[in-house]
Amino acid sequence: MNFKTKKLIYLSLVLLLVFVFSLLVLAEEDKVKISLTIWTPSLMTTVMDGIKEFEKQYPNIKVNVNDIPSKQYADFLITKLVAGAEFDVIQMKDEILPSFAQAGWILPLDDFPGIEQYREDLSQASIGQMTWDGKLYGLPFYQTIGAYAYIPEILNKAGYDHPPKNYDELVEMAIKIKEKQIEYKGKAIKYPIGTLTLSQYQDIFNIWVTLVYAFKGEHNAIFDKEGTPVWGEYGRQALQWLYDAIYKYEVINKVNLALEPQAAMENYAAGQGVFFLYSGDWMFGYLFNKPELSKIAGEVKAGLLPTGNPDKSEVGLTSVVCRSYVIAATSKHKEEAWKLLQFMGGKDKFGEYNQPKRILIEDGDGFAYQSLYDDPEMKEALAVRGSIEVWAEQNKYSYPYMEITGFNWFSDWMRYANAQLNGALVKEIEIDEALNNMEKKAKTLAAEMKE
Amino acid sequence: MDQPLFNNINLKMGGMVLKVNKFSLKNQENIFSWIFNIPSIIIVLLVMLYPMLYALWTSLHRYVFYRKTMPFIWFSNYLSLLHDEEFIQSAIRTLVFATLNLSLVILIGFIVALVLNQDFKFRGIMRALVLIPWAVPPTASGLVWKMIYDPQFGLLNGILRSLGLIQEYIPWLAMPRIAFVFLVITTAWRQFPLVAMIFLAGLQSIPNDIYEAAKVDGATSFQRFCKITLPLLRGSFFVVLVLQTMFSLRAFDEIYSLTYGGPANSTVTMSFYMYFAAFNKMYFGRGAAIAYIIALITLAFSLFYIKIFYREET
Asked: Vertex B33, ends B31 and B35: CA angle to 5°?
């Protein structure tokens, strides 16, 4: 081959490559590009795998993922949406959904084709969580309820054959375990009751709310339907219980007052406590029963929430929290966004609950679709949470978190309430003063919003 | 302005007389300086003046994110803050924070500058090392200090316990007053290098002759420090006071990463409250009003400093 021929061949090859590359670029350009905005790092692998699968099922759609840290998630969306930025599908937290819906930043799904099949299969509580002003705004990627976790082995050592049924019994058992200096994982248990963090985050609010619902024993224990505070004496009882558990009985470690949310769960997973108030069902699959992360894996069980008011309810009530996908009003590709939303929060192209199933199986989170309870794969995955019957029973004593969060002044009030509850527990203010302040603030904010 | 832009000259061409304006050199320079500066002026106006005016405009409206209308409400946002107990508490807290922070930063910065001004081995390396805290992003610095104060694994607890000063680990950041003091320390740690460098630059600009002359006149070290060093550092003090007051009043990042305003709101300053107003409550107008109040307080402090320093000079 002479030099000229070689040159010609090389040139042809280069041209061919350029041609193929251009075709690929053009093919990529032809695709409809939509965005998916998320905050859930723990679900990242499942979400990314899901997107690959979605792009296979819908080859003409390309999904770009914006991953935003949870702490800045709402701030990020607000600043962008106010500036009119374009989004397509967004992960949504229950507590900000009402404000976003009211602002017109997200679209109601009632007119999208096929929405009825989801309505029929969703739990009523989850529908309540995603509804604003009578319209459904999202499809859930997980739904969670809470109970509490306990370690039967330690209870047996202390001479108990059943978990506590009410809060007095819980304290009594905790004191006995502490006094007996029962050893677990090589150490005497000093603080038998673990809790979510009691520092100034949302967790402290959730614990107080759980206690108020337990002591009151009925729905709408925090606000009535108009948003008027109605916790009354039960609110004080709940906060006093926590205060006494920390300072009087010393069964909750006061270190919890300064912990990050994750650290509180990790302490329990390291075998530092007997009970864990209040445990979402996802915590079992995500941490407690994962042998590579937890020393208590296989030894921890779920128990029905204790009651604080046996006359009203035999079991403590739990909130249903539901995280969903919604479509942004600024989306220019609503049809494609609806396909992605269904894939991520509902059914894929072949009618399978692809992502909601994966999220339970891979990540241990809960689900809102009732038909999935009959799915053998899901039954097997649910076993990681201990007794399925306990969760099914606890589910009967649930209320939608929207009972508390469904007011457009809620997120600002909760921020204030977190500080007041934390203030009472770090002895900065009196319990009654903290609760009075919270009541006053709720009324002020509600009045301000009406202006 | 008193010089005309063009001077008339007459050109004779054949039988014709052509009147031509001569472009004077000085005016030519003026025009070029305008031409070259206009782009940067436009950029400054766009990126600084526009947001400032927009924030002012916002602060005069009831701008709530999820409302469709945005009525003009004059100074209601400002007036409503006077009745907002949380804001008033945050304002008081900010002033206490600024005072403590300013004092600590100036004290440490000044001592470090005096040390670095001495002649010793590895002085250059030390000067570079001192700058490290200043180079750390504020959020990262907050997170590092959070680990130091950690109630379970923190270095501080570890040291105190190994010295036998505490029996069990203490949740420092769950104690409102201590958390506040730790926030001041954390912020001062990051800010003192800049102050030290400003003082160091000031110290190096003082001619040695003055000290030598004072020595010959029998002045003691203390007298030289009080009569020469301090007065001649007045300019540096002025710069430090203005800058640090501004930084202290606007402190945000360390609070965000170290305490998030807790415990019991004890570390919520005005700038952090502004964040809550805008992003939690979604009252953007009120948030902008708080921003303007912070700016006005900073301006008032700056004018106060100028008055004091000028009066001393005159």
From this structure: 70
* Cβ atoms of A142 and A368 closer than 8 Å: yes
| Distance, first Cα to last Cα, chain A | 87
Mean pLDDT over A146-157 rounds to 93
Look up residue A132 and give its two tokens.
Answer: 């604003």
Residue bearing the bigger pLDDT, B261 or B4: B261
CA distance to partner chain B, nearest, from residue A151 (Å): 23
Per-residue pLDDT reduced to its tens digit, A34-72: 999 999 777 888 999 999 999 999 999 999 999 998 878
Instruction: Give the 3-state secondary structure of B31-48.
Output: HHHHHHHHHHHHHHHHHH
Q: Which of A293, A292, A253, A257 is nearest to A276 (CA)?
A: A253
Domains in chain A, CATH or no CATH each: 24-144+322-388 (3.40.190.10), 152-273+407-450 (3.40.190.10)
Q: Out of A82, A201, A258, whose CB is closest to B151?
A: A258
Tell how far CA B234 is from the center of its chain: 18
Model pTM? Answer: 0.84
Model ipTM value: 0.82
Neighbours of B72 (CB within 10 A): 9
Contact A258 B280 (CB under 8 A): no
Please judge whether B264 and A420 are an interchain contact, meaning their C-beta atoms are less than 8 angstroms apart.
yes
